[in-house]
Amino acid sequence: MSMKKNRHDDEVYILGSELPQNNGKISGKRKWIILSVCLAIIIIAALYVIFSTKEQTLEYYFEPEETPQQSISTTITDNENANQKGYIDTQEVTINNASLLLHIPYNATMSLELGLPDKSDSTIIFTTQAADIRKDNKRIVGEFVLAGKQLAQGIAKKGFCAVIDNSISIGTGNETPLLRQAIENNGYFFRQYPLVSNGIPIENNPVNKSIRRALAIRNEQVMMITSQDALSFHEFSQALVDMGVSDAIYLVGGNAYGWYYNKEPDRHEYGNERLDFPEYTSFIVWRTK
Fold first, then answer.
1. Can you tell me the distance from the alpha carbon of 223 to that of 243, in angstroms, rounded to the nearest whole number?
2. Is there a domain that residue 114 lies in?
């Protein structure tokens, strides 16, 4: 009498041997394996989409990262000839194969504003975005003082800029007396990523590449610096140091919108102008005296 051989799901079959017959049904164990593989593929595909599109994320919503804790600042006091109309001197330099534009203000004063400045204001010779805002509540990241009024708190980013009585200070640190001084003297204050402190580049956690901007001091002269190519934070900071910058903090980069006037004066715009700037979008504004 012939006996029917039982086969189980956990049997091992040698290549070339008879395959198990299950009448076209998939066992519960194999179903879980197939479902697990499909889920893994979906997760990998989702991660690929997220990271492959990261470069297109506008830096209007750049989240805070931890940076070294230091306390140092450099202050520059404007003493240009008040009888000359202000303008922006733009120079192009190449450092470490990186092309940079230097925007140097002459006979101008710096302040902060919320919202896009008036494009018809003839006194404005340069404007660019300053502090970052959060993705969730669209509020300013870090301490922010506008004409003596503190609108935001926090030290998520250790770099800072203070403008008090036409003196511009750029530094790095958790604490600085310049915050209180800005409040007491109707000044301005905001925080950003520190890039250079006392001639030393500072590392920051974001590793993506993008168009970078900085507010910097070189040879006791305040300037705005923009990369013409996408750079990492490390590449940008190192280029600033190699060109002689002593102190610098980051400004919103990428496609952030702004404009400036040269000596002629010709108007130059950069970035993408938005019709829906969040309420707390902040701008650095340089005005002619």
1. 13
2. yes
- 139 assigned to some structural domain: yes
The number of beta carbons lying within 10 Å of the beta carbon of residue 215 is 24
Give me the domain span that covers residue 150. Answer: 61-288
What confidence tens digit (pLDDT) does each residue in 9-66 have? 444 333 344 444 555 555 666 777 777 777 777 777 666 545 444 433 334 444 444 4
- Contact of 214 with 236, CB cutoff 8 Å: yes
Residue 101 lies in a domain: yes
Average pLDDT of the segment spanning 178-185: 98
CB-based contact 221:232 (threshold 8 Å): no
Number of domains in the chain: 1
Digit-coded pLDDT (tens) for 240-266: 999 999 999 999 999 899 999 998 889
For residue 68, give Cα distances in angstroms to 51, 71, 203, 204. 26, 10, 8, 9
| Distance in angstroms (rounded) separating the CA atoms of residues 202 and 69 | 11
Is residue 8 domain-resident? no
**Three-state DSSP string of the chain:** CCCCCCCCCCCCCCCCCCCCCCCCCCCHHHHHHHHHHHHHHHHHHHHHHHHHCHHHCCHHHCCCCCCCCCEEEEEEECCCCCCCCCEEEEEEEEECCEEEEEEEEECEEEEEEECCCCCCCCCEEEEEECCCECCCCCCECCCEEECCEEEECCCCCCEEEEEECCEEEEEEECCCHHHHHHHHCCCEEEEECEEEECCEECCCCCCCCECCEEEEEECCEEEEEEECCCECHHHHHHHHHHCCEEEEEEECCCCCCEEEECCCCCEEEECCCCCCCCCCCEEEEEEEC
